[in-house]
Amino acid sequence: AEGAEASPPQAAQPAAPAAPAPAAAGDAAPNEPLIAPNTVGAQLLSGLSGRIGGITDHVLAAVQSMADLPALWEAASQLARDPVAQTRMLDAAWKVLLLVGLGLVAERLVMRAFGRFRHWLDVAAPREHESWTWLKRLPLVLLRLLLDLLPIAAFGLTVYGLFGLVKPLPTTKLVGLMIAHVYMGSRAAFALARALLSPASSHLRLIPCSQEAAAASIGWLRRLMLVGVGGYVLAETGLFLGLPWAAYDAIINVTLLVGSLLLVRLVLQQREAVASALRAKPLEPGEVPDRTRLMLRGFRNRLAETWHVMVILWLVAGWAVWALALENGFQRLLWGTVLTLLIIGAAKALDEGFIRVSERLLDPTHDLAKRWPGLPARAATYVPPLRAAVSVLIGAAATVLLLETWGLGALAWFSAGTLGNRLVQTLFNIACTLMLALVVWEVTNSSIQRRLARLARDSHAARSARVRTLLPMLRTVLGVFILVFVVLNALSQLGLNVAPLLAGAGVVGLAIGFGSQTLVKDVITGVFLLLEDAVAVGDVVNVGGKGGVVEHLSIRSIKLRDGDGSIHIVPFSTVTTVTNSTRDFAFAMVDILVAYETDTDRAGATIKEIVAEMRSEARFKTAIRDEFDFWGVDSLGQVGVQLRGRVRTEPTQRWPVQRELMRRVKRRFYEMGINIPHQALAPLERSARPPEDEEDESTPKAPAKKAEAKAAE
């Protein structure tokens, strides 16, 4: 240990000449560290490094205390060099072996003497499977146990009686008595186990189990007793013969380790058998358990899957308590186990309670859903991550309490000025920032949803659909902004330097702004036009000198379909004025020219009658909103009088109403004899043939003249 303590200064001496190196680089500006000092991130890294080093030291100390091999080697060397110790050891060896051997012979003789009687007990045992069979077996089992204890008593009487004959040394006598006591105690315990399990005769078995299980239990008990008794006898004998206490502890620790490993092997071997007994039985067809029963079934299934892990951990912890010689170790181990079960149960109950509360929020038939109709839909978005966060929080709190229960002082990690305290404050600040961001998001989203609902109530389906196309884009922009804000705040809280990130984002934003000015103008203008609800799909508009029906709206341009089928794509940056002909309502204008001798009042009344007839028809009942508004005489022309009026219609029904109205007015005026002045066109009389006809008649004559000339030749 002294050499280990002196090694760090020696290792540090060669590195001393490298000290001037930082001074030589003093002219250069030092790089700013990625993690600022005295922050949560720096303390977290340094604390984690220190904890790993401490755990490593404890593990090395435990391994060293497990088996002190140098102490054993030193004790063996001293026994080999000490004549007195050798004489004492040889005297003890042959005398103890003689006593134990004669005791075993006596035990064997007594066992053979009562063998027939033991066989008679097996035959006399009741074989009927009746309710009182166990009571009949008990006297026979006690008699069988007595027969098994008589050979052990013979062993003890033989050993005690021969002590006066061999006259052992005091040390030899102590060793012999210790071996005799340990042997008789282990044999008596083994006889009791055989009486309860009776692996050779199932008729005398008090514990209900199969033949294989009884035989396996006796086999494992024999192995464990062999290891335990052998290690204890070896350690005690060595101690009586002058073995150091360090070597004694090493032998006991190794013995307990081997026994623990055998128990671990037994647990793993019986893992499936115990799990099948702990696991909940399958449900009947059509059976639906309630929430409490379902939770208990889940607990049993989880226990069946993990019982072996808990038992193995408890065995390892028990051996570590003994090997490290902890003060009140087993008492603390038992108390810690009880508190662990209570903490885990409380944590599970809290988690289950929060799950039930969250299910009420998601239940559309609950009273909360009736009071706030939109609550289940909104809660469905946040309940799953909130469940995960609450589960993590409960798990972290339970972990801290478990560490405190097992003596690791976890609560002291969160005292004022410690790393845990700063970490909790940092996480709290990040959680508050996240909650504020979620509130902003929900308020904005709720405002958009109310606007959509208002549009739907006003029967503005097209505009509502258009706003819904805009909603994902607005959500994305807002979500990206909130996400960037939360991430930068979290990194700043953790001690990371976010200045380079902000500078880089500013440079990128400046480059994008200069390179896409027109695009940015298109987007901004389009956003404002969409938000002001100036244009919607299906409207008839005139923008940028182009008119038509709006077929599609994007964030950058508007797509128009002209009357002849032409497509016009107009960027929003070129739009200075929007003329919408189909917003809210429209007017079908009526301008009719009548002769001067026409009664204008009668003509206006006729047009009103026609409009009334159209409103009574199913085709125009919803298209025409009001009666005909007759304005009167608009002007006096050269050939007649100009009458004007209008009819209020639906936004997109102005042209069909106007066309049908003009058709019926023309027919009704013709029937009533109301003259509509027009300029008559006189037909043209054909005084001569058109030049085209003369050309057509002269064209075929040319080949005939050529044919006549050729024939003359």
TrEMBL record:
Its main location: membrane. It comes from the Bacteria. Residues 1-32, 681-713 are annotated as: Disordered. The keyword Nucleotide-binding does not apply. It is a multi-pass membrane protein. It comes from uncultured Craurococcus sp. Residues 518-583 form the Mechanosensitive ion channel MscS domain. It is found in: Cell membrane. Residues 480-517 form the Mechanosensitive ion channel transmembrane helices 2/3 domain. Residues 590-676 form the Mechanosensitive ion channel MscS C-terminal domain. The chain crosses the membrane at residues 141-163, 175-197, 224-244, 250-268, 307-326, 332-350, 388-414, 426-448, 469-488, 494-514. The keyword Membrane applies. GO terms for cellular component: plasma membrane. InterPro entries: LSM_dom_sf, MS_channel_1st, MS_channel_C, MscS_beta-dom_sf, MscS_channel_2nd, MscS_channel_C_sf, MscS_channel_TM-2, YbiO-like_TM1. This is Potassium efflux system KefA protein / Small-conductance mechanosensitive channel. Residues 1-30 have a biased composition (Low complexity). Keywords: Cell membrane, Membrane, Transmembrane, Transmembrane helix. Belongs to the MscS (TC 1.A.23) family. GO terms for molecular function: mechanosensitive monoatomic ion channel activity.
